[in-house]
Amino acid sequence: MDPLEVMEHLHKVKPVYHPIVSASKYEVIGHELYGMYGDDHRLDHFFRDSEVPDEFKVEVQKQLLEDALDAEIENEDGTYLFIHRSARHLLEDDEETLLRTLSDYEEKGFSMDRLVIEVMEHDFEEDFEALHHLLLYYKTFGIKIAVQHSGASSSNIDLIRQLQPHILKIDARLIRNHYADGLQDIMYTLQLLARRIGAALLFENISESFELQIAWKYGADYYQGNYLAEPEDHLKSATLRASIEPSISGFIKREQKLIEKRLQFLNDWEKRIKNLLPKWEGEEKPEKFLSLAGQSFNEESFRIFLCNENGKQISSNLRKRKKEWKQEETAKDSNWAFRPYFLENVMLMKTWGRGLLSDTYADIETKELIRTFSFPVSKDCFIFIDISYSYIFDNECLLT
Question: Which PANTHER family would you find in this protein's record (predicted)?
Answer without folding.
Answer: CYCLIC DI-GMP PHOSPHODIESTERASE PDEF, SIGNAL TRANSDUCTION PROTEIN CONTAINING A EAL DOMAIN
